[in-house]
Sequence to fold (225 residues):
Amino acid sequence: GAVVSQHPSWVICKSGTSVKIECRSLDFQATTMFWYRQFPKQSLMLMATSNEGSKATYEQGVEKDKFLINHASLTLSTLTVTSAHPEDSSFYICSAPDTYDEQFFGPGTRLTVL
Amino acid sequence: AQTVTQSQPEMSVQEAETVTLSCTYDTSESNYYLFWYKQPPSRQMILVIRQEAYKQQNATENRFSVNFQKAAKSFSLKISDSQLGDTAMYFCAFTAWGYIFGTGTRLKVLA
Fold:
């Protein structure tokens, strides 16, 4: 099946700094990618839909200026957590649908903000 | 609003036995997809099974099968011949556009 990668898999940063997370579709093109957030022992919450060549669509309650999404190419979407604070600590997962609309998930990125 | 509900936060089953995980959803959409995903301790989301709403026939993938009741908006997952490797969180998911996940069921397979 198709493969989606995320980088980094784990990042620790100081409060107030910005962190960029990359999501890549390795063997297929994705005009759309999705970003999720997962707190410990909880479900995945859709944060935003990343669209290649256009602005991302954010879910209600997600701060656009806090979570910047850039879909630079058909294989790369980035999520930047700006001015990170401890409450932003979470597990972030991306996914991308292939031609047949099956979603493939990245392995996730664990963000810890000190 | 679209919602997905999993009413069983935790379940356990003996190895080789059968277990059924429940999922109900609510939507006004007529065309949509339903999924069951498995999330093992590695946290990698793995697709278990997929059901298109327009198909009446229940999907089956080896030991995994679903009971899809469209009118009742129910989508349960049956795992037959449970194996230790089936121990994981299981999420029911709905999509018409973007994904909505249920709260998950933690399944433990006992030796």
Remarks:
- The interface with chain A takes residues 33, 35, 37, 42-45, 47, 50, 91, 95, 98-104 of chain B (CB under 8 Å).
- The two ends of chain B are 41 Å apart (CA to CA).
- Residues 3 and 35 of chain B are 14 Å apart (CA to CA).
- Chain B is about 0% helix and 55% strand.
